[in-house]
Amino acid sequence: MSKVKYYTISIAFLALIGGTIFYANQYDVFNGINKTITACVSSFKVGKSADTITASVEIYTLHNCPYCDWAKQLLTQKGVSFKEYNLSQQPELRATLLERTKGRMTVPQIFIDGQLVGGYVDLKTLDREGKLGCILTCGMNKKC
What range does the domain containing 64 cover? Predict the structure, then answer.
């Protein structure tokens, strides 16, 4: 695919590319998210599937944490395998978490290719903006 152009966007825009749905409502489009989606959709090849995900994903969690559950559910829906460090079962990893996040103690904390993405809200924002699929397929510092 070369460039994707949008001539008229009234209420919503939906595109199904490689099993991932990119969505932008009119408000988002006027806030520049359409450029992000256009760039990602333009560079994301049709036919990519979960088995082409090359990124290494790690997630620090706790029991009874809804944000942790939502993050794991989102990753699972994307077909992403991840390494989970449950701090309820492995409390000795709190020191590692503090060091890796430069002091953040909230969970979940998600790392892609060893780089901190943040928590569930950060992960969901990447997904909503259409960036998560590209990051998982091509890595944090590479373009698709």
Answer: 50-138
User: 0.70 exceeded by the pTM?
Assistant: no
Q: What are phi and psi of 26, to 5 degrees?
A: -60, -40
Question: Residue 45 corresponds to which tokens in the numbers above?
Answer: 């090849």
CA atoms lying within 13 Å on the CB side of residue 86:
8
C-alpha triplet 17, 129, 66: angle, nearest 5°: 105
Mean pLDDT confidence for 49-54? 65
Query: Using CA atoms, how far apart are residues 75 and 124, in angstroms rounded to an integer?
Result: 10
* Alpha carbon separation from 9 to 25, 35, 104 (Å, rounded): 9, 13, 40
Q: Which two tokens stand for residue 113?
A: 């290719």
CATH number at residue 69: 3.40.30.10
Residues 139 and 53 sit within 8 Å (Cβ to Cβ): no
pLDDT digits (tens, 9 = 90+) for 100-115: 999 999 999 999 999 9
